[in-house]
Amino acid sequence: MTPPLSGRRRWLVRTALLAVLVLALSACANDAPQDTLDPASSFAEELSQLFTGVFLAATAVFIVVEGLLIAAVLKFRRTPGDDSFPTQSHGNPRTELVLLAGPIVIMTVVAIFSVGTIFEQFDVPDDALDVTVTGQKYWWAYSYPEQDGIAGGEFTTANELHIPTGETVALEMVSQDVIHSFWAPRLNGKRDVVPGRTTTWKIKASEPGVYEGQCAEFCGTSHAYMRLRVVAHDRADFDHWVAEQQQEQSVPSETGDPEVYAGYQLFEVKNCAGCHRVDGVYEVVEATRRSTPTDPAAPNLTHLFSRTCIAGCTISLPEDDEPTARNNLEAWLRDPQSKPGSLMVIGELSETEIDQLYAYLRTLD
Amino acid sequence: MSTSASPTLESTPGSGHHSATGLSNAKLAMWAFLGSDCMLFGGLISTFLLLRTKGVVRGPEVKDLYDIPFTSVSSFMLLMSSLTMVLAVSAIRRGDLARCRVWLVATAVLGALFVSGQVYEFTAFYNEGLGFTTNLQSSAFYVLTGFHGTHVGVGILILGSLAAMGDRDGLGPSPAETVEIAGLYWHFVDVVWIIIFTVVYLIR
Amino acid sequence: MALTDERPMLELAAGDPVASPPLGVFRRPQAITGWRSWFTSVDHKKIGIMYGASAMAFFAIGGLEALLIRAQLAVPDGEVLSAEAYNQAFTLHGTTMVFLVIIPVLAAFANYFIPIMIGARDVAFPRMNAYSYWAFIFGGLFLYCSVLLGGGPDGGWFAYAPNTSVTWSPGRGMDFWTLGLIMTGIASTVGAVNLIVTCLNMRAPGMTLLRMPVFVWMSLVAQFLLLFALPVITVALFLLMFDRLFGANFFNVDAGADPLLWQHLFWIFGHPEVYILVLPAFGIVSEVIPVFARKPLFGYYAMVLSGIAIGFMGWGVWVHHMFATGVGPVTVAAFSLTTMFIAVPTGVKIFNWLGTLWQGKLTLDAPMLFAIGLVGLFTIGGLSGVTHSVAASDTQQTDTYYIVAHFHYVLFGGSMFGIFAGMYYWWPKIFGRLLSDRIGKVHFWLMFVGANLTFGPMHILGLQGMARRQASYSSGYGWDFWNLVASVGSVVIALSFLTFLYNVWHSRHAVTNDPDPWDGRTLEWAIASPTPVQNFDAEVTVGHLDEWWHRKYEEGADGVLRRRDEITYLTPVRDETPTDLSTIHLPSPSYWPMLSALALPIIGFGLLYTYWLCLVGGLLLVGATYGWGLEPSVDPDAGHGHGHDDAHDPPAGESSPAEADDELAGAPR
């Protein structure tokens, strides 16, 4: 029953304050590629500022309330043996009204400053670059329709979304199966991708670079492994990338590299072509809504080796490190179930077959 | 619901009256339950209204199958059962147990006719190609009207039990209130049907 | 569901001389002591204890699931759980803590203390009360059968369609989840009807609504929320069940369905649910703080009104769970505003607690520490809630660990701290044993430090972009350190719970017969510890808020408060001769509540495996309902009680079937 010593109490308070300080500092940790408070676009910047403003207001209230609480606990302790009563106050309507006014005023101020941002966030400019985003278990597909800024025909890629720096990109988003959520934290908040609906979102990057993101709505076994990457280029580089993506792949010649040709044939024999498209080579697969896990909906592999990641961006395909890329891709071909919940089915492959498939896939650059 | 809209919320000290609100526990409980049930039907009706706007992928639309004259007649029977229910309550209030039992049975029979109508309607719809799993509307329609039909069915069981127990003096120390509480439930089920009939069948 | 709620009307045969044994099946149970009595008891106190014990068992299970989750996430690329197992673990953790821990443990306190605090002898419908408990425990066990029968549910406690469809969740787990929650929903609905009628109708003379203790008020508001919120999720669960078991199309996008229907139904229930979980805990600390501050609650009316206001406003904020779904900007803006302003009545509560503490004479015993812990931690949860209400920036925080931190500060820092405050406060009244205050303080500090270590870092993780519900993460996102800290914190929380269990074990010798160890203010402290079976010997007439305190203290002519010379307890206390129970009218034990609740899981198994079992369950349900209806509340053959006839001879026209049957007065006349 002995109350803790007040010295110990003070020590506790000091430790707590120190802990808060450490927390605050570490929130600015480096090496956090999805840090929402390290914005890389005007959209994310605005959200970060909005959050910080409200957070500071909340912190002020926090300090007042917790300060009063700690003060009350320190100040109004009953000394043992003291059986007297404090003033029996039942409350004071005037104080209570003042206290009621406090939160009302604070919330009104927050409301005034924040409501407009909701409408801003929903406003997607007409001249934005349109990209159709398709979410499915457990990867993202991106289609670039022909429009101002993209001449020369529609094309589709997966996992990595390429955008021109400084331009607003409008995402028209659909889902093939369950609800997903598109989120690249440094570029903007998240927006759900709902089957049966088309949702719209916008992103922008102020600097060229690679921005990490992920599916943010629980979508099944492999939800944690449904990552994404946004690559921002200068406009010229972007145009170059677009032109490259628009080119169809060519059918390997029977007289060329025999390993590549064998891989090309295996692609059909092993029924890879039943789900994966390669523009100009294997185009049978029609994109359909997925009603069963076996419906064909797998990434379009055209220009596979222009991408830096596969399998929902959980396996990297480094551009400048061919051996690692080869190791990673071959490991994936050996066991696509190594990613939990992966819907890719390939069957047993011999090492020769894996080498042949790799040789063919490597030509898709 | 009006659980709190009771005559007196404060009991008189020392009066020895057991109910602080003036309503008996059982009646108050029935009101509370009916309040809860309102939300159940609210959810089901909203679901139907939402799904009705979505059109159908296959099979017929429910609205093309309604036989309004037929359903009007069965709805009328359910409405009339509210009248017989009122007569049953009024009979038991006069202490006329025999008359009360007659009206209870009449109410239950009208309710049973309504349910039979519903069974007939379901069969007709099914024969027209609208099964439970045919499309969105069919699932929503059968679940909504089925939940209501189940409520009517439970009501029939209650009325039947009351009528059967009447001769064993089984209506408790206050038969009038027992019947009245059963009546509350029955009228609620009728009112819900009026809403369903209006928004599901008549307003398209 | 309808059947179970119709019973009050079917309870017709009160006083029927041939009704025992009803239907001639069983001899009516008569024991009110011994282990068998627990299965047939209709005593609100025993049922309260069973609720509490079951909920604490589920708390241990839900806690183990939390430990598994934290073990998996302690380091990057964790290998403790597979992704499938992880998804089941967080689904079960959320479902268990919400539906099988906090709701029932608050129901335990409500069951045990509402009747006593309002001066009643039992709840309005003692057998329905037993039914609620059995339906809850059978529903909970049914839900957990999934783990043994082919895998737990894996769709999250929020179970967003269409990920929970048979296509995407083909196991039986979600079926067990759906049916189990329908059963616990029935339990809570019946319980809500019962407790609402109890609060409104069973109050002792003079116990006006505005003399009810704040705990009773907050529980009453929560029961109203349950009453109206549960049917909405019941609808959603039925639709999901029809989809999964019978091929309906409610969430079938191929047939044109809109998955947002589920989210609306779920959150129209789900947001009031948050207040269902936290308001009674607020009620508990509103009882504890005045007692340990030796002064009345600051702003009783403000406290009650703000609770009611939260109850109403809680219905108008559900879309804030859906800010990222792309519902239109006007909807988002409207719900953003309502969400901001629900902070106002919540703030009122915090200020009133501070006002009560201020200038008090605080005794920092374990119950008070937990109560103060609630005020401190809930403030954090409330304020992070305000940051969530800003819809635009919430698109960054929603579905991240920031919101996990937010609702754990609300539900762990709020509800669980309140619950443990109640445990320490009321333990001597319930069991006649004192929990050690010294161990209690260790418990508090472990739990307080553990909660902050676990949930504090989650704010940072969320801001750094860690999404929730991810089964693992890679190094290189800046998440490694704080995840490890959170996992260490979860072990500290586990230790704190073990400390509590040790304290319970330790208390077995700390027998106390002190009826009023804390110098309490409300009626439960005016009777013996542990509570005697009859609660009160005679009808209580209430003249004040904090009635018991007013019976103990008076203001002298000099304006100084002093203890009255003579204080009359309302039952024999300490070593006084116990009351002769043969003169007291108590409800008799009954098998029927348990049997009719047992029908629910049988029907559930029938739906999943073979429809024949549904027939068995249905027959049991109907049979038990009639058995119940034909059985008088008070057994005429029982050894105690002085029979129906002289207990009930009300003037014609004033009586009711319930009065003769289930309703119990504060005292015999």
Give a structural overview.
The complex is a heterotrimer of chains A (365), B (204) and C (669). With 365 residues, chain A is an alpha+beta fold. In chain A, 37% of the residues lie in helices and 17% in strands. Chain A has a five-stranded mixed beta sheet, with no helix packed on it. The longest helix of chain A is centred in the N-terminal third of the chain and has 34 residues, at 42-75. The radius of gyration of chain A is 28 Å and the shape is elongated. Chain A starts with 5 loop residues before the first helix and ends with a helix. Chain B has 204 residues and is an all-alpha fold. Chain B is built from five helices and no strands. Chain B has helices at residues 25-52, 68-93, 97-127, 136-165, 175-202. Chain C has helices spanning 2-5, 7-10, 37-40, 44-73, 83-117, 126-148, 173-201, 214-246, 260-293, 300-313, 329-341, 343-357, 366-389, 391-397, 401-431, 437-463, 480-506, 547-552, 592-608, 611-630, 644-647, 657-660; strands spanning 553-555, 561-563. Chains in contact: A-C, B-C. The interface between A and C is large, with 100 and 105 residues.
Which descriptors would you attach to this protein?
heterotrimer; A: about 375 residues; alpha+beta; five-stranded mixed beta sheet; 7 helices; 12 strands; elongated; disordered N terminus; B: about 200 residues; mainly alpha; 5 helices; about 70% helix
